């Protein structure tokens, strides 16, 4: 005989997920990759707002996690993992392109030398930033997606807000800690106090943006679910 709790577990329907045959997934994947690449470029610049220390990619990166939440909720962990790995690979490819562009011989006149110095200054630190970003993005997004899908398996279509907030909090903390630990010295953060400031500001800002946008994210998820025929099949 089965217990009441076992009967509830057996009768619980599997969580719904859509296939990737529609154009929505491709659009979100492209947006995630572009956001990650631009964030890596922006992160090479240290930014100071009074006592607050951050980097130039701060306003972009939360969008990558919001897109990750949407894809995880609608398409499931395996599809979200493909998007994460694809964005990871494209960002690494972009970094390789920057290295080649810098290494190519340029004009030797004053203008050419000035352009070379500007390009090296803007894109030169990016490989180190990309290493930090890629490792942080891979770990944080994977944990974020896994937690969201596991929570959905328990609650079904209910409590979407809890899935979005719970998964984002853990994923962003892992992401921020890994990224800041590797990237801090590259953007000029060398003392412990500034490092703690950098980690806390980055984490609070990213999670805060995602929490504030939970109603918008929920509306987007609902809108796409209604237009994904395979989600309700």
From TrEMBL:
It is a multi-pass membrane protein. The keyword Transport applies. It is found in: Cell membrane. InterPro entries: YhhQ. Keywords: Cell membrane, Membrane, Transmembrane, Transmembrane helix, Transport. The chain crosses the membrane at residues 21-41, 79-101, 129-149, 170-189, 195-224. It holds the Pfam family Vut_1. It comes from the Bacteria. Belongs to the vitamin uptake transporter (VUT/ECF) (TC 2.A.88) family. Q precursor transporter subfamily. Involved in the import of queuosine (Q) precursors, required for Q precursor salvage. NCBIfam families: queuosine precursor transporter (TIGR00697). This is Probable queuosine precursor transporter. It comes from Arthrobacter gyeryongensis.
């Amino acid at each position: 005989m089965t217990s009441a709790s076992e009967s509830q577990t057996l009768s619980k329907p599997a969580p719904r997920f859509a296939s990737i045959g529609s154009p929505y997934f491709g659009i979100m994947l492209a947006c995630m990759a572009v956001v990650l690449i631009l964030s890596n470029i922006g992160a090479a610049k240290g930014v100071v707002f009074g006592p607050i220390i951050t980097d130039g990619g701060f306003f972009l990166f939360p969008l990558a996690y919001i897109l990750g939440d949407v894809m995880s909720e609608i398409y499931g962990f395996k599809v979200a993992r493909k998007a994460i790995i694809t964005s990871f690979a494209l960002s690494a490819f972009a970094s390789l392109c920057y290295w080649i562009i810098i290494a190519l011989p340029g004009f030797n006149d004053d203008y050419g030398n000035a352009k070379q110095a500007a390009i090296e200054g803007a894109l030169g630190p990016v490989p180190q930033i990309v290493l930090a970003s890629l490792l942080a993005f891979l770990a944080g997004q994977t944990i974020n997606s896994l937690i969201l899908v596991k929570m959905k398996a328990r609650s079904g279509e209910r409590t979407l807000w809890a899935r979005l907030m719970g998964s984002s909090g853990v994923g962003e903390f892992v992401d921020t800690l890994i990224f800041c630990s590797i990237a801090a010295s590259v953007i000029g953060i060398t003392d412990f106090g500034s490092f703690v400031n950098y980690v806390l500001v980055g984490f609070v800002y990213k999670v805060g943006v995602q929490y504030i946008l939970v109603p918008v994210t929920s509306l987007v998820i609902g809108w796409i679910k209604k237009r994904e025929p395979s989600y309700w099949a």
